[in-house]
Write a structure and sequence with these properties.
4-stranded antiparallel β-sheet; globular
Length: 112
């Protein structure tokens, strides 16, 4: 294992998964006026067509992948009573799990 000191060497790397909230393909997930802490988690599905986000407003958002245009459109699910701490796709790519913070709920979402 060795460190890659130059970001330009990594810019076109194809990753098997994506659950980091930062990156060029995710520039469009951030709401206007976001301070960098509003999105708590992201996950891209296995077919690399969708990305889900968990936010501080109790929402689970679903975007098309990649999502690099500012103010990208999304489908929003509201079920948690406070911030959403994590989202993860199951291996079928059409089922999503989310976990709540204060409500401590685990929710299952079907993508239709």
């Amino acid at each position: 294992c060795r460190q890659v000191p130059s970001a330009s060497h990594m810019k076109d790397t194809e990753w098997a998964s994506w659950n980091c909230i930062l990156g060029f393909p995710l520039a469009g997930i951030w709401p206007e006026g976001a301070d960098g802490t509003d999105i708590n988690a992201v996950d891209r599905n296995g077919t690399q067509t969708l990305v889900a986000t968990a936010d501080d407003f109790g929402r689970v958002n679903l975007f098309t992948w990649p999502c690099f245009h500012a103010k990208s459109e999304c489908k929003t699910g509201k079920g948690h009573s406070s911030h959403v701490t994590c989202v993860r796709f199951l291996t079928d790519g059409l089922t999503l799990l989310s976990t709540g913070g204060k409500d401590t709920a685990i929710m299952q979402w079907g993508i239709v």
